[in-house]
Amino acid sequence: MSSSTGSRATTGRIASAVILAVIAIAFLVVGVIFCVEPSGSLPAWLGHSTVWVGGKNLPSPGYHPLRAVGSLIVGVVFAIGAWFSLWYRGTGTGTEAGAETGAGVPSAR
């Protein structure tokens, strides 16, 4: 019987859940920024660019709603991954579960 068969999460699973949660929060924040800010005031690190039209510097019309939805979807997927890495308990190989319940042990007749 190994110590990892208990209900407690291991250190590696907690670390991966924290990393996935941080990535999820970052994508969700970027998605909310895309939804809240008008396209003319988005920062350059979010892919904002301007177009020169008729001697005026106008904000780019490029794909801000698509980027917002994509960021929100990726954030939700990473959040689900973080939750799944903490709460999922895989099934044993059969020998570990059988040792605890007595299944698979030949009867002494």
Can you walk through the features of this model?
With 109 residues, the chain is mainly alpha-helical. The chain has a domain at 10-51 and 64-89. The protein contains three helices and two strands. It has a two-stranded antiparallel ribbon. A hairpin with a 2-residue loop joins β1 (50-53) and β2. α1 (11-36) packs antiparallel against α2 (64-87).
Key features of this structure:
rod-shaped, 3 helices, 109 residues, single chain, mainly alpha, two-stranded antiparallel ribbon
What level of helicity do the residues show? 40-55%
Oligomeric status of the shown chains?
single chain
The helix-and-strand class reads mainly alpha
What is the number of helical segments per DSSP (H or I, 4+ residues)? 3
Write the element-wise H/E pattern from the N-terminal end onward: HEEHH
Give the overall shape, derived from the CA principal axes.
rod-shaped
- Give start-end ranges of low-pLDDT stretches: none
Strand content: 5-15%
Radius of gyration: 25 Å
- End-to-end gap: 26 Å
How can the largest sheet be summarized? 2 strands, antiparallel
Please write out the topology:
Elements: H1 11-36, E1 50-53, E2 56-59, H2 64-87, H3 95-101
Antiparallel strand pairs: 1-2
Helix pairs in contact: 1-2
Describe the structure concisely for a colleague.
With 109 residues, the chain is mostly helical. The chain has helices at residues 11-36, 64-87, 95-101; strands at residues 50-53, 56-59.
